[in-house]
Amino acid sequence: EDQVTQSPEALRLQEGESSSLNCSYTVSGLRGLFWYRQDPGKGPEFLFTLYSAGEEKEKERLKATLTKKESFLHITAPKPEDSATYLCAVNSNSGYALNFGKGTSLLVTP
Amino acid sequence: DVKVTQSSRYLVKRTGEKVFLECVQDMDHENMFWYRQDPGLGLRLIYFSYDVKMKEKGDIPEGYSVSREKKERFSLILESASTNQTSMYLCASSYGTRTDTQYFGPGTRLTVL
Q: Which end of chain B, N or C, is less surrounded by CB atoms within 10 Å?
């Protein structure tokens, strides 16, 4: 059975303090790994898709990387507006559905 | 931009009522999904559809049914709402293959009293 584990559950950073969120996965044939951002009371907003180990993608202060067992979401010099829950999800040979981790709740204070 | 809309942001229903949640996407996507999101449990797939009138059960289909009569519209039906169906319901759509990105709607917060 596919498993996705995100750590830490919660993270508090000072503005400008860079850090990384982790997503480790166990799947039967990874077809894609997805990162989403979710603000309270809203639907997840797509950030990145990674398909193979070694792949990296960047968007503003965010950079996502992928290995054969885990993915990292690096946040460089975060701002308070980066505060949100970040969700990791995988798609595998099991089918169409995404298997989500429980998320990391990020709070960036001024 | 992909746009997925859901019929209501907030909904309050009584136990035993039949509830319809509707989702519409405007990008001609083949696949549509219904998830529910609960604290501590994350997002769980209820049903999905990979074509008009085609549907497949997800991880937690009990107590739910779905309808997809047109490509752009996917409805989730709670035949007889119960309090344990109080949750955030999220609709998503994706283009065609299994690996295509799923885009989510804003969600419907359903409370069953």
A: N
Q: In chain A, positions 5-64, which contact chain B (CB-CB < 8 Å)? A: 31-32, 34, 36, 41-46, 49, 51
Q: Contact B104/A43, CB-based, under 8 Å?
A: yes
In B14-63 the beta strands, taken as DSSP E runs, fall at 19-25, 31-38, 42-51, 54-57
A34 vs B contacts (CB less than 8 Å): 101-102
**Record: contact B99-A32, CB cut-off 8 A:** yes
Distance of alpha carbon B69 from alpha carbon B53, whole angstroms: 6
Query: Tens of pLDDT along B2-56?
Result: 699 999 999 999 999 999 999 999 999 999 999 999 998 989 999 999 989 889 9
> Tokens standing for B16?
């035993």
Best A98, A99, A105 member to test B by mutation, with max B CBs in 10 Å, is: A98
pLDDT category of residue B98 using cuts at 50, 70 and 90: low
- Spatial contact of B107 and B88, defined as CB atoms under 8 Å apart: yes
